[in-house]
Amino acid sequence: MILQENGLVKLSQIIHDYCGLSYTDRLPMLKEKISKRLTELGLTYWEYCRYLNMKPLEWEVLVELLTINETYFYREENQLNECCSLVLPKIKEKKSDRPLRIWSAACSTGEEPYTLAMLIQETGVFPPGSVEIIATDINKKVLQKAKNGWYHHGSFAFRRIPENLLKKYFSDQNGGYQINHTTKKMVQFQHLNLLNHETVEQIGKVDVIFCRNVLIYFDQDTTKKVIHHLHRNLTPGGFLFLGHAESITDMALGFQKVDSGKTFYYRKEPDKDETVRCISG
Predict the structure, then answer these.
(1) How far is CA 240 from the centre of its chain?
(2) Which residues face 173 on adjacent strands?
(3) Which of 49, 79, 102, 201 is the least crowded, having the fewest Cβ atoms under 10 Å away?
């Protein structure tokens, strides 16, 4: 029994090193998530650790078991409204001919980046052709659903979306709703591990990052590593939106907190020659 428990600890360490998910203090939860898979393979924890090394594609199966993909359109609307009404006009002021670039990290089945694409069209601040939304996730299965842009009628994904947006940007097809072509074209989906510095760097410079409800699954060291990667990708003065339960205020990671009263988010410290102003002021 002790040997088995040590194997579970070892597996939790391997998972942490690969994608940052921290199960060291939640071993019973990890055990519950993977027990069926280990039974299918007929492997112990120790054997599964070796199996992951010999069969790298098994990581895709494991990631699907470990990641939580519950999301929906128009989630945390105060942040979305703040982004569209204050942040986008602020970015427009200092941009020349470059397109607006937004990164939706851990995008799951696509509801967040498609919501951003719809709302950007609604504001009219940037025309669709001058917008690039990069949407990434470590789970390849949910990315495929996101790329398809089709969601079942009974999906909880639509529980908060305003009726006018649903009618305007979706068509009724095959028992579900299909995102329209213009909106779909604004979003580029790709597989990405937030801990992989090289692939994160390939995203290039972006003006806004949404990385919501991800850091809650990381320990502090991993959080700092991920935020450092995001910081490098943001343009000076760019904006970072995290989940309401996530805070990096006391980590001294190169961000200024912006609190509008209705919500909060972060701004990357601008270049020294740029006058720092509170955008909500």
Answers:
(1) 11
(2) 176
(3) 201
Domain with CATH 3.40.50.150 in the chain: 77-268
- The more confidently predicted of residues 182 and 278 is 182
SS3 for 162?
A: coil
pLDDT tens-digit readout, 75-112: 999 999 999 999 999 999 887 678 899 999 999 999 99
Which residue, 221, 230, 220, 224, is CA-closest to 197?
230
The CATH number for 77-268, chosen from 2.40.50.140, 3.40.50.150, 3.30.413.10, 3.40.1190.20, is 3.40.50.150
Q: Is-contact 264 254, C-beta < 8 A? A: no
pLDDT score of 95: 72
Residue 232 has pLDDT above 60, yes or no: yes
> Residue 96's pLDDT is what?
65
Backbone angles phi, psi at 152, to 5 degrees: -60, 145
**Tokens linked to 128:** 């669709």
Residue type, 62: L
